[in-house]
Design a protein that fits this description.
Length: about 90
């Protein structure tokens, strides 16, 4: 199990990026969250099996059809593993 925190920039708010990320993460068995940040970026915490997290990281570069991702920066975290994936705070 690994956890990574990613910051996604570009046109990623108001285009269903978080909801699409949640759907993709759940299909892959990845837990964590996706949330909007005040600067217009999206933060994603992804925890799970290495292959599943790596697949989600690749997906973050495309996102939903209306998004325009400019950059995805990820860092490994030593974080408690959440039970599910959420976009609700």
């Amino acid at each position: 199990m690994i956890c990574v925190r990613c910051i996604i920039t570009g046109r990623v708010q108001g285009v269903f990026y978080r909801a699409s990320t949640e759907r993709e993460a759940r299909q892959l068995g990845v837990t964590g969250y996706a949330r909007n940040l005040p600067d217009g970026s999206v933060e994603v915490l992804a925890c799970g099996e290495v292959a599943a997290v790596e697949e989600l990281k690749l997906w973050l570069w495309s996102g939903p059809p209306a998004s325009r991702v400019k950059d995805v920066r990820c860092e490994s975290l030593d974080a408690p593993v959440p039970e599910k994936f959420t976009t609700r705070w």
